[in-house]
Write a structure and sequence with these properties.
By secondary structure, this protein is α/β, with parallel strands linked by helices. It is 45% helix and 20% strand. Strands 4, 5, 6, 7, 8, 9, 10 and 11 form an eight-stranded mixed β-sheet that branches.
Amino acid sequence: MRIEPTLRALADPTRLRIMRLLDAMELAVGELAQVLGQSQPRVSRHVRILCDAGLAERRKEGSWVFLRSAVAENRAPPMGSAAARLLAVAESDDAAFAARCAEDRRHLAAIRAARQASAEAYFARHAAEWDTLRVMHSADEPVEAALARALGKVSGTGGSLGALLDIGTGTGRMAELFAARSAHVTAFDKSPEMLRIARARLQHLPAGQVELVQGDFTALPFADAAFDTVLFHQVLHYAQEPAAVLAEAARVTRPGGAVAVVDFAAHDREELRTLHAHARLGFSDEQMLALLSEAGFAAAAPVALPGKPLTVKIWIAARTHQAARAPIAIPAKDQSR
């Protein structure tokens, strides 16, 4: 980084507001435009200046562009870390700037709350046909067999999954599949409609082996290190901020335990955003491995299962240590399937 471009980039109120928003989470450029009340071309110009100065980074996903801070203190060069500290101190000491930043975060929370309501309505409408919708994208059997093999190889599980947390259990398919290999299964979902279907599906299992819990995957209602295995099966692409979700998963996973993420490889099927409430168009290996590492997981090589039209990936990782910098959640809650 160079001092002159850095100072020029920060010498604008809008860009200061953008940097404070990015300090907490990755955001789509369109979200920034809504929060700031400015046109997308104008916001894109600000984004270009921040990226050229090394203060922010772009990530393209289909037709959307996401932006993240490049000066997080745990991974930035010294000048970048100094800029991050300066912005934090400015919000602490400058009352007018702090008020503006707080208003921006409230506006962002309202935008995301509206999206959450739309997603919840979608899940309520489609709960009864969820398994059918899922098969439209990939066949169950090869994915489930590959997932079972991958979990069996994770160091620390010894073939048993121990206490299993199935986040976004949906209709309970994964909870049912892995119940025999688990000491206890917690089937977790935000949608009451999904949990009602899961309860009917799992009623044949021994009493006390399965517990169904309603809640949000950005604020898991469980103690630290409560589970041996945490599973996300076709869930993480509904997260507005996957880093925050994985940080919560890391918190409730015991050291040496495992997380399994089954999701789509990065793709360009834009219609899934509107037709099926997807917040993310899959994940690249680079992106997912970075998310897992930052959350405190050590990942094994991913497994790919090509499909038509989408490829499914399985990422397995072992819990190692606390994340260096836990993401800060905004007030609005994300949707867990």
